[in-house]
Design a protein that fits this description.
Layout: H1 2-6, E1 19-21, E2 25-30, E3 33-38, E4 46-55, E5 60-61, E6 68-72, E7 75-81, E8 85-94, E9 97-106, E10 112-121, E11 130-132, E12 138-140, E13 146-149, E14 152-156, E15 161-164, E16 168-172, E17 176-182, E18 191-196, E19 201-210, E20 215-226, H2 231-242, E21 261-262, H3 274-279, E22 282-287, H4 301-304, E23 319-320, E24 323-324, H5 332-347, E25 352-355, E26 362-364, H6 365-371, E27 385-387, E28 395-398, H7 405-420, E29 425-428, E30 436-437, E31 450-452, E32 455-459, H8 460-473, E33 482-485, E34 493-496, H9 503-509, H10 512-517, E35 522-524, H11 531-534, H12 543-564, E36 566-567, H13 577-581, H14 583-592, E37 594-595, E38 600-602, E39 610-614, E40 621-625, E41 632-639, E42 649-655, E43 660-668, E44 671-678, E45 684-693, E46 698-707, E47 711-719, E48 723-729, E49 735-742, E50 745-746, E51 750-752, E52 755-763, E53 768-775, H15 782-786, E54 800-802, H16 808-811, H17 814-826, E55 838-839, E56 850-855, E57 862-865, E58 871-875, H18 878-895, H19 910-916
Parallel strand pairs: 21-22, 22-25, 25-29, 29-33, 33-34, 34-35, 35-36, 54-55, 54-56, 56-58
Antiparallel strand pairs: 1-2, 2-3, 3-4, 4-5, 4-10, 6-7, 7-8, 8-9, 9-20, 10-19, 11-12, 11-16, 13-18, 14-15, 16-17, 17-20, 18-19, 23-24, 26-28, 27-28, 30-32, 31-32, 37-39, 38-41, 39-40, 40-45, 41-44, 42-45, 43-44, 43-46, 45-48, 46-47, 47-53, 48-52, 49-50, 49-53, 51-52, 57-58
Length: 930
């Protein structure tokens, strides 16, 4: 490869003066040469760019003709025209990166094996160079050529495949990085990167197969970035900033399933628990293996009765929403009847993601070998045969769900079952890559085909992403089906099937896995506290030691939840109030979107081994964690240049608390600095108040927040020089900006995708900015709900519900209150199991103990006091009523709190709880966000 790289055939460029500009770099034509120039103050200045094309069948580089070059509106296009092949590549700016978009056309009849090379000849003026090859680790560059071929990495035994490299690599020094790659999740099966210390040549290549007459698009990404906050992290951050659509969640912020906790089969194998689900914020669950044979989700008549390879035994997974199913004896008609009845009753409410045949990459062996032989994946470097996977019986083989006979059947089944069961979405297990398919379908013009010395192949990741795209196509936006993927590819929610305390597995999978997840929501799924492993001699330990250990293990997991933006499941909620207490904060940050780079510098006296950033611009949040035994004090400096694409704004931060807070910000050039105290083992959060453009390089800003149920007030008092600039501030879910004033005078503002902006505002040296947000729902203070007469002194229900006579839609929501107080009675919070009575007489609206539920399409949403001091909850539609009642119930929880007690679960078992006498008890709670 070294010989190949050093003999790259340079394209001959005509004399034309064009340029592609991003904030950190500029791609220019200098005479006959494309040059990438660094606009950062880093250890490299210029990098000539060359393009070349390798013929994998002839085993030589092609002699490229002189390209036709054109430029327009910040674009540079090169077109290479040959008798049997055309290649056109256009370079343009895409937010923070330079995007190269190639199109290849095979004008001949013969199939071609090609490898496209992009090479930058670097001029780093330091020997302290490092290399990131696209996986989770970096290494020092010495005198030898670094060469990474292919996308496969370490084997991950549980998913029986390999991890795969991210869509980028980098050469970097202490202060600057240079990266070449492709757009994440594009159909790519083979890439390679090299760096030659002798020549400084840094090269990225991508292999592809081009059939006769085929037209193929490819996309490439060039990044120049600072490495001040981690070189891979900085490169990946620019991918996040430049291609937000790649990590977009179907349904966005209004997706009802994506932004909460996974119930971890709690609402699937058992009868769903409505009030527990609300309090623990379960919004989705995996409906695990609701079929008899893997690969036959529709349970076709001709496929249902067969002789399994193994004895079918009934396992716990043979339950659908608490209804037992015997895989061996239940008839097909009964199986289908129960599945549909339970799905239509519970599926959408509890977010049952239909377990989708291991994302289509595993199928029951007899089924696959008899009906879909062209689909078998026979990669000798991966496991292709596995026993007892999804149904718990039979052998399953690896198949390829794209372009094969299996793929056609799989897609037909997905379409039919989504309609039949009115699914909220699908669960994809094994949704990663690292297994090569080489079957007959590689002769088709499928995306992602590559080649090696054994011929053409496609990586499994390409097919998984195709499956996700197909699922999203079944319903139009914004009502697309939700995909929960257990893998590192596309999807709307991503599962990491390891508990935080499996430290060895986490070290292997993070941060690479987290980089793939990006700003999407994610959760960990595993055996919680792993108590036996954490305290192997537990039989010799005391209750006090148990409580101390669980407290420390919980804090460790909380720190990692905030660091990695991954939520927990019920296996750590019971007996552990801290895990439940943080849910509003951690789920809120996950909704804002985890980011790879945390552009923060901390003073030497501040110990903050845990840090992370969520959101961008005026929607930015920071987390800091101190795991030492002592509190730590010091200064945080936020680099504003890295919070937006143009780096023009200076942002003001305040400590994020639930009631009120104050933080003094000192602006020095591009940094916002503030002092902080990080208590031992306590997560500390900061939120953005607002941002200023054209602000002075030095000033002080005192930021304050005051939060109430019906309103939130943020203010900033400036101390510096006057200026004129834009004011930006963020969107807050279920709130809207009611008024924005500067020195008491209202200013106009506009809404955009990033939040709100007031343009060209005049600020005096001591201006005070106030941003008042009003609730979309609540028009009454919190105490009016908390002190409402739900129950009397004997803790028996005394209030009543009112439904207007002509409002049948609202009647269904009386069940929310029945479920709420049934939970309270079962947990001995109240003394009666009676349901609140329902009145349809409007005269009851004058009572002080009535709650009226009304759905009125042409009136605004509101929760307010009635004339008699009862409460009105009025929504424009049923969806909004559901949201409003969730928010209302969260306020009721202040009056009727409950801490979930220890009960046996994965990671802490009944015999251990019995030994420590902890059944029905919990460890102490700390309230550190007040």
């Amino acid at each position: 490869m070294k010989k190949l790289i050093t003999t790259l055939i340079m394209a001959s460029f005509a004399i034309l003066h064009g340029a592609v500009n991003v904030r950190t770099a500029e791609l220019k034509l200098h005479g006959k040469q494309l040059i990438l120039e660094n606009k950062l103050s880093g250890d490299w200045k210029k990098a000539p760019l060359s393009l070349s094309l390798y013929d994998g069948k002839a085993k030589k580089f092609l002699q490229l003709p002189a390209p036709e070059i054109s430029e327009s509106a910040g674009k540079i296009t090169l077109a290479y025209r040959m008798p049997d092949l055309e290649w056109q590549i256009t370079f343009s700016a895409r937010s923070r990166v330079i995007l190269g978009e190639s199109t290849f056309i095979n004008k001949g009849k013969d199939e071609k094996f090609l490898e496209q090379f992009i090479t930058l000849k670097t001029d780093f003026n330091t020997k302290d160079l490092r290399f990131w090859d696209g996986f989770g680790k970096t290494r020092a560059i010495g005198d030898k050529l670094i060469d990474r071929k292919g996308i496969k990495g370490a084997v991950l035994p549980h998913i029986s495949a390999s991890d795969i490299s991210f869509a980028a690599s980098a050469v970097y020094s202490d202060d600057s990085a240079l990266s070449i790659g492709h757009v994440t999740f594009d159909p790519v099966s083979y890439t390679a990167v090299t760096y030659d210390p002798a020549s400084g040549n840094y090269s990225y290549s991508q292999r592809f197969v081009l059939s006769g007459g085929e037209k193929l698009p490819l996309r490439h990404v060039i990044v120049s970035s600072t490495s001040d906050y981690g070189a891979p992290e900085g490169v990946i951050q620019q991918h996040y900033d430049s291609f937000p659509e790649v990590w977009a969640v179907a349904g966005g912020q209004d997706n009802p399933y994506a932004w909460g906790n996974c119930a971890h089969y709690r609402n699937w194998w058992d009868t769903p628990r409505p009030e527990e689900s609300r309090r623990l914020q379960y919004t989705h669950d995996w409906a695990y293996a609701p079929y008899r044979r893997a690969g036959d989700m529709m349970m076709k008549k001709e496929l249902f009765d067969y002789k399994p390879d193994n004895e079918i035994v009934n396992r716990r997974r043979g339950k659908f929403g608490g209804y037992p199913i015997n895989y061996k004896t239940t008839s097909r008609d009964e199986f289908l009847r129960v599945r549909k009845e339970r799905y239509l009753k519970y599926g959408k409410r509890y977010g049952w993601m239909f377990y989708n045949n291991c994302s289509g990459v595993w199928c029951e062996r007899q089924l696959a070998e008899k009906y879909y032989p062209d689909s078998l994946t026979k990669d000798p470097k991966t496991v292709t045969l596995i026993k007892g996977w999804s149904t718990g019986h039979d052998w399953e083989v690896r198949v390829f769900p794209m372009g094969t006979s299996w793929a056609a059947a799989f897609e037909r089944d997905m379409k039919e079952i989504a309609e039949d069961l009115d699914l909220p979405g699908f669960a994809l297990d094994c949704g990663g890559g690292g297994a090569y398919y080489r079957g007959p379908a590689v002769k088709k013009m499928l995306p992602g085909r590559a080649w090696d010395d054994k011929g053409a192949f496609i990586d499994q990741s390409v097919a998984v992403n195709h499956v996700v795209d197909f699922i999203h196509s079944l319903r139009p936006a914004p009502n697309q089906l939700t995909v929960h993927n257990n893998g590192n590819q596309k999807g709307d929610i991503v599962m990491l099937e390891r508990p935080f305390l499996n430290i060895a597995a986490m070290k292997q999978m993070l941060p690479l896995y987290r980089w793939f997840i990006g700003p999407r929501p994610g959760n960990v799924h595993g055996h919680g506290f792993m108590f036996k492993e954490m305290m192997p001699d537990w039989r010799n330990r005391t209750q006090a030691e148990f409580i101390d250990l669980i407290g420390r293990l919980s804090d460790y997991q909380i720190m990692n939840q905030f660091k990695w933006g991954l939520s927990q499941t019920f296996v750590t909620f019971y007996g552990n109030p801290q895990q439940v207490y943080i849910l509003p904060e951690i789920l809120g940050l996950i909704r804002a979107g985890w980011q790879s780079a945390t552009p923060v510098k901390v003073s030497k006296d501040l110990y903050a081994p845990y840090m992370s950033r969520y959101g961008k611009g005026a929607n930015t949040f920071f987390f800091f964690g101190n795991t030492s035994k002592k509190d730590s004090k010091g200064t945080v400096a936020v680099d504003n240049l890295e919070l937006t694409a143009d780096g023009k704004a200076k942002f003001i931060f305040v400590k994020k608390l639930r009631n009120q807070s104050e933080t003094i910000n000192k602006i020095e050039k591009n940094f916002s600095k503030f002092d902080t105290v990080l208590p031992s083992r306590v997560p500390v959060l900061y939120e953005t108040v607002c941002g200023f453009t054209s602000a002075p390089e030095k000033f002080t800003a005192v930021a304050k927040s005051q939060k109430q149920l019906e309103k939130q007030l943020y203010s900033v008092k400036l101390d510096g020089k006057g200026f004129t600039g834009d004011l930006s501030f963020r969107k807050i879910r279920f709130f809207h900006p009611a008024e924005v004033t500067i020195d008491g005078k209202p200013v106009k503002f506009i809404s955009d995708d990033n939040g709100y902006t007031a343009k060209n505002v005049n600020f005096s040296a001591n201006s005070e900015v106030k941003i008042l947000y009003a609730s979309d729902f609540f028009n009454l203070p919190q105490e009016k709900i908390v002190n409402f007469p739900f129950v009397n002194k004997a803790k028996r229900i005394t209030f009543r519900l009112h439904i207007p006579k002509n409002d049948d839609k609202a009647m269904a929501f009386t069940e929310n209150f029945n479920e709420y107080f049934a939970f309270c009675f079962k947990r001995k919070i109240i003394a009666s199991s009676a349901k609140p009575p329902v009145s349809r007489n409007d005269a009851s609206l004058q009572r002080n103990d009535v709650i009226s539920l009304q759905i009125v399409p042409d009136k605004p949403n509101t929760i307010e006091l009635l004339p008699g001091n009862g409460i009105l909850i009025r929504a424009k539609d049923t969806k909004t009523m559901s949201e409003m009642l969730r928010e209302f119930a969260a306020v009721m929880d202040i009056r009727f709190p409950y801490i979930f007690k220890f009960s046996g679960s994965m990671g802490i078992y009944d015999d251990q709880l019995s030994h420590f006498k902890m059944h029905g008890r919990h460890i102490p709670e700390r309230r550190y966000f007040e």
